[in-house]
Amino acid sequence: MNNSQNLPLVMLPGFLCDPRLWGDVLANLPPGDDIILIDFKHCKSLQDMVGQLEKLETSRFHLVGFSMGAYIAKIFATKFPERVASLTLVATNVGALSEREQTSRSKLAGMLANVQYKGMNEKEAQRFIHSSSAQNPHVVQTIVEMSRSYTSEMYIAQMRATLHREDLSAEIAKLSFPVLIVAGKDDHVVRLPTLQHLHEVVARSKILILDQCGHYVPLEKAKELSVAIHEFVNSGGA
Q1: Rounded distance, CA 184 to CA 207, Å?
Q2: Residue 87, Cβ density class (10 Å: 0-12 exposed, 13-18 middle, ≥19 buried)
Q3: CA 200, CA 194: separation in Å to the nearest integer?
Q4: Looking at residues 96-110, what average pLDDT do you find?
Q5: CA 26, CA 37: separation in Å to the nearest integer?
Q6: pLDDT of 84-95, one tens digit each?
Q7: What is the rounded distance in angstroms from the CA atom of residue 219 to the CA atom of residue 183?
Q8: Residue 46 domain-assigned?
Q9: Which of 10, 102, 222, 228 is a plausible cystine mate for 24, CB 3.0–4.6 Å?
Q10: Nearest-angstrom CA–CA distance, 129 and 138
């Protein structure tokens, strides 16, 4: 048994998400695992987000991040590699958000300075997932309900904190903990070639590509993701 097996699993949600993102994944993990769910909803800055991890009492843990949460995980892992037993990056952006995405988010943030954010509707949520997932009310409603739990102030703070992202691939490649990269084959937010390139840069990494899966991997392919995380953590990344 490797000495990292009994460490906690710390799970980070994405933009406009909260711990509900991981509900189906947790339901498929073996009972008894030590899970810590992070919520960035009330963070005011990037440092606040990283600080959520810094202040954890456990000195070392397995880190799992989805999308924006994976970016926060990468920042923490490069700052405090001695605290990271393994790193799982799910649908992670590599480097800066596209100009289109930055413009879209900035424009909406400007509008929200004067009106209250009301979250995504079902049609908007379906843009981010595979067509088969769009027929699953649970997946769609979870995305909608998570987004609707955000106020304008929360949206703006989270958007501004993570709008300008650095490419940390080279820094991650220099470190020693195992890395698992999980990609939705049909993700239109984070394109598959981007994550395949990350896998090539981080030579010690493993990559899992999930068919018929869009961006919201933890909701669309919960069982497959839970199996992959469990096997990865308990094999020491081998």
Answers
A1: 11
A2: buried
A3: 10
A4: 78
A5: 10
A6: 999 999 999 887
A7: 13
A8: yes
A9: 222
A10: 12
Which residue type occupies 72?
I
What's 27's domain CATH number?
3.40.50.1820
Alpha-carbon gap, residue 27 to 46, rounded angstroms: 30
Number of domains in the chain: 1
Kindly state whether residue 97 falls inside one of the protein's structural domains.
yes
The residue type of 133 is S
The Cα 97–Cα 94 span in angstroms is: 8
pLDDT given for residue 237 in this prediction: 66
Structure tokens at 132: 């088969």
**Predicted confidence (pLDDT) per residue in 104-157, tens digit:** 777 877 888 888 889 999 999 999 999 999 999 999 999 999 999 999 999 999
What's the domain range around 68? 9-234
Contacts of 70 (CB under 8 A, 6+ apart): 12, 14, 89, 90, 91, 92, 93
Evaluate whether 73 touches 64 at the Cβ level (below 8 Å). Answer: yes
3-state secondary structure the chain: CCCCCCCCEEEECCCCCCHHHHHHHHHHCCCCCCEEECCCCCCCCHHHHHHHHHCCCCCCEEEEEECHHHHHHHHHHHHCHHHEEEEEEECCCCCCCCHHHHHHHHHHHHHHCCCCCCCCCHHHHHCCCCCCHHHCHHHHHHHHHHHHCCCHHHHHHHHHHHCCCCCCHHHHHCCCCCEEEEEECCCCCCCHHHHHHHHHHCCCCEEEEECCCCCCHHHHCHHHHHHHHHHHHHCCCC
